[in-house]
Write a structure and sequence with these properties.
Keywords: Signal. The chain is mainly beta. It is built from one helix and eight strands; from the N terminus they run αββββββββ.
Length: 188
Amino acid sequence: MKKLFLSLTLAIVSSLAFAQDIQTPATSANVGDSPVQQGNWIVGGSVGSLGYSFEGENFNININPQAGYFIADGFAVGLKAGFGLQTVKGGDNIYQYRLMPFGRYYFSEGAKSSGRFFGQGEIGVTGAKQGGVSDTSFGFGVNAGYAHFLSRNVALEGTVGYNYSKSNLANSQAQNGLGLAVGFQIYL
């Protein structure tokens, strides 16, 4: 009797579970060209970026918020800020900041309805503080990435690029290296 009751209960629960319309969260959205049209805004940034300096053999982490405006279909201009920490082997850590205007172009070649490749260039002012010494310098970056749209207004992004900064904190030697970032953007 127990086996019959258990089998019947299992059959009823199984049929109810399969009868439910289970909704899974969306992992992409077909957005076409609508987010990158002239007149739209872009707000977001990379919530964490990791990099490696070739000269100093140091690791760093940065937070880079940015905002921009599409002046043409697929082309946005804006301003990027940055705050970071660079660990120094056997010395004081370096706290970094940056303020850089940028231009970003979304390529129509290779575009899907749920994602696009883009290129971004930036040039501006960077600075650093190590111990009690502060320095401001010239900097630029060239990045390439992919925006994957989770919805019409939100995209996850991955970027890779080259960044350069000249700083007196490094004895007037150029600091450059490759970086990798993962972030998000909101398209308004």
